[in-house]
Fold this protein.
Amino acid sequence: MRVVALPMRVKFRGVTVREVALFEGPSGWTEWSPFLEYEADEAAAWLAAAIEFGWGQTPPPLRSSIGINATLAAVAPDQISDALSKFGDFNTVKVKVAEPAAAGGSAAGLVGIEADLARIRAVKELYPGVRIRIDANGGFSLQQAIELAKELAIEGIDLDYFEQPVRTIAELAELRVKLSRIGMRIAADESVRKVSDPMAVVHAGAADVLVLKAQPLGGITSALRIIEEAKMPVTISSALETSVGISMGLHLAAAHELANHDAGLGTVALFEEDICDEPLLAQNAELEVRRAQPSDAKMQKFAATDERRQWWLNRLRASYALI
């Protein structure tokens, strides 16, 4: 096991340095990267995915490349162009919202929803032909989500969808009914991957789109089962992974017919430097479906401390015991 710590270009999801564990199996390199706050029971699903990808066989790909969206952290409006320049060309951008302590608030003299609106308006102005998604990671109350959605509708800013605006499935279901009146779609992420029954959000009629991530769902096979059962539009996304983890997501995205949904798999651009000499960075808004090969020199350069590696070994033992 190789444990690395990669600096982020901007704080994303509260993370400034991303720690991940890498393994080489008979099928190639694989990644295990549950966020540090996750307990063993949640990290075990991610480990099952890593083992499947490194020791199992991937499904036959239906395409050789995948369209991707750019991802914008909660930065100030005057930082947007620089932040998105790392993604090259793109047709869709996902904008992080509901992060009041982020740079997009204080740097612009705004906080909360006003900071989010300023960021979304700036994206619309700078990239008028691009589809916009917004992602709150469950950070809004029901009323806050309605307030933001109504303001966007008043200003004529159409969204591809509003991802995980609120925390619970019951709130999502209520919000979906309310926002359907203004033609705004709801996407579910945490309500799929952080619950005991990934299909609960589907049975509740609480989403129009499912955002699926290979690692948290236990691997490609498990995610494909959800897609088959749900029979609704999906977006394949990343969990802030290196190119090795992104490769797993690409193989998932290539294994089924997507409903013209750009995948959220371009997040290697959020790192100062990737672990591979040939990182999975988008060209012409697409990523090639391939296995990623980490560089031994880069794994040494970004190697975590002995103490952190021991922490991951202990975590590995605890998580493996559960699968």
